Amino acid sequence: MLEKKYKSDAIEAGCDEAGRGCLAGPVVAAAVILPENFSNELLNDSKQLTEKQREKLRPVIEKEAVAWAVAFADNHEIDHINILNASILAMHRALDQLSVRPEHIIVDGNRFKKYGKIPHLCIVKGDGKYMSIAAASVLAKTHRDEYMKQLHEQFPVYNWKKNKGYPTKEHRQGIEIAGPTDFHRLSFTLLNPQLSLQFDD
Questions:
Q1: Strands 120-123 and 67-73, bridge-based pairing
Q2: What stretches in the chain show pLDDT beneath 50?
Q3: CA 26/CA 109 separation, integer angstroms
């Protein structure tokens, strides 16, 4: 059973991201403030849900949240500042877009950078503990998946509509065949280390 809030007396936003381990595409973060009376039996860490369950939850969260926002840090930013910093940047961008200013922030994971003067708390596996983080994980995941499915139409060789940019065998085979796109993270190991194929600049 997920807990409603960490600080019961504060307007609290939950933050999470999706796509940290991908070889292509952005890292996507969401920030969500839920109402005090929010309840949904299906809500859980997005990784514990099926794609169909996440898609069912997304409009419920977007309709019932006090405020929500989704933001991206693209693959070029990831290559420039690294995936951790890009993840935090995307979370800050999502918080920037909230229509209601939170008084406290809870973040999935163990790393975050101070957001203005608002206190925050990092919670390992927070997406399986607190409703607002779980809701943020669902929004981040569904918005990112939607984006990668759209990109798939331009680059079907990588099968992003199925693997969403994660390092699957078929994704890496696509890179072997066609090389990287402008959406690939060049700072990541795009091919299996035992393969020595070199890309032209």
A1: unpaired
A2: 195-201
A3: 19
Tens digits of residue pLDDT in 188-198: 999 876 544 44
What strand order describes the sheet that includes 104-108? 67-73, 27-33, 12-18, 104-108, 120-123
State the pLDDT at residue 87: 98
What would the two tokens of residue 4 be? 């409603």
CA dist 166 and 86 (Å) reads 17
Question: What is the CA 100 to chain-centroid distance, rounded?
Answer: 21
Bridge partners (DSSP) of residue 68 are 32
Q: Tell me the CB-side half-sphere exposure of residue 1, using CA atoms within 13 A.
A: 3
- Which pair of structure tokens corresponds to residue 63? 């309709």
Is 152 in contact with 165 (CB distance < 8 Å)?
Answer: no
Rounded Cα distance between 77 and 67, Å, is 26
